[in-house]
Each structure stands twice: as structure tokens, then as C-alpha cells.
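Database export, one record per block. Field names are fixed; values are copied verbatim from the stored entry.
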Amino acid sequence: MQTQVAIIGAGPAGLLLGQLLHKHGIDNVIVERQTGEYVLDRVRAGVIEQVTIDLLDEAGVGARMHEDGLVHEGVQICVDGVRHRISFKEMTGKAVMVYGQTEITKDLMDGRAAVGAPTIYAAYDVSLHGVFSDRPHVMFRADGKNQEIACDFIAGCDGFHGVSRKSLPPSAVTAHERVYPLGWLGVLSDTPPVSDELIYVRHPLGFALCSMAVADSHKGVATFVTRVTGVEAHSANPRRGANAIGYAAGVPAMLSTMSASSGIR
């Protein structure tokens, strides 16, 4: 197989790059180690900034985003129990939008399928060769056979833990990292937002974020849907990570009690 650009990773970065390259007449093939269903099932961040909105429009996949996304012209910062609103629109002339990464991925997948651009899912044992040469190529296994893509360029869009970064020599990578010894506990509830904008909270017990996502309720019935993850964020503070898992275990029971006391099911 021959193409101009081989893109590693079919997340939003790889899909968006592929769409933009196609619009400029540059052939590309995307290689993804997971299945398309798996990629769509991943839940990620849900707030995008103006530059991302503009790029999705440029890629020709912004119609559903403008129809379903929630535009936020500001944010609220809560300190010592007092909210302070900051207007992005007044200060920068721009806004942000609540629109889930899963939805962006779906829009990009649909856009790519509409133009017939190839994406190879469930590609195993992906390896990059000749990255710094005039003849780079990608090798992988898919559909039960070994395959190869010869290309002019390889674009690594498969994240920090992907094969692209691992294929580069240490001398070619400069990492800048600040490690926070904190755990993060997220609770997802299918209930109306408590505010029209996101609320960032500073509290003696730590930082909190009251966010939201675009969702559809079934027949107007309020249903609690809880997704809880307790992880050890960094080895610098493993006890806090273990505590997060312990706290997470008690959250479903707590929500059930709240639901019963409020009469919501």
C-alpha cells in the first residue's frame, strides 16, 4: 500500500489531521490498533475551545457540533463559597463549547467515511521504520496477514503511550512534565446542570469541578447513571490513590440514598 502520509492513531487528533489533509488533496491512511467500536466507546473530555471549533468547521464536520453543542461565554470560579464569573467573550471575543470528545470522534469518522478515505482498524503489532529516511514505512498485522504502508511522512497521533513516541530515539524527544500527587474521582449523573456554566471550586479539601455533558434523557425520566473511577495517579502518593478507590466504592450507595430521599428514580 502506498500513500503520502501514514497516520498512526484514529483518535480525534489523527482523524482531524486526516480530514484536513484530504481537503487539501493529500492522500493519507490512518492505522488504529483498536476497533472502531472501541474507539467510539471511549469517554473523554467534553469542553472544546474556539480554535478546535474553527478546525472542525474547516474540516467540514462541524454541523452537528453547532446544533447540539452548548456554547459557554464564561466560567465561574468559586472561592470561599463565593462565585466569581469570568467572561471569555468580553475579554477575548471568544467562547468555549460543551461537546463531548466521543461526539467529535463520531463526526470525524462519519466525515472520513463520506469521502472514502481509508482507516485500518484492529491493526496489531504496528511498527514504524525509516522515520528519518526518505522512504519511511509502517508495518502491521490486520485481517490475519502482515501488511505494509509505504509513505512520504509518518504522523504519530497515538498519544504518550503509543508506538510512535516509542519509535523515536531518546535524543529526539524532549519531555516537560509537572507531576501533581493527586487522585481524581469523577461522578457522572443524568440530572439537570446546577449552573449554566462550568464551576471551578477551591475548597479546603481540594479542587472540584462541576461540569456537564450533552445528553438525552429517555421520556423525561430522571435516571442516575454513575461512572466512578478510582486510580493511583502517581506513585509519589500511592496512599491517596488507594483512598480514592475506597471512596469510589461508597459513592453508588450514597447516590442511591440521595435518590430515595428526593423521590427521584
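Remark 1: The mean pLDDT is 83.
Remark 2: Helices lie at 12-23, 36-41, 50-58, 63-68, 88-92, 101-115, 163-166, 238-262.
End of record.
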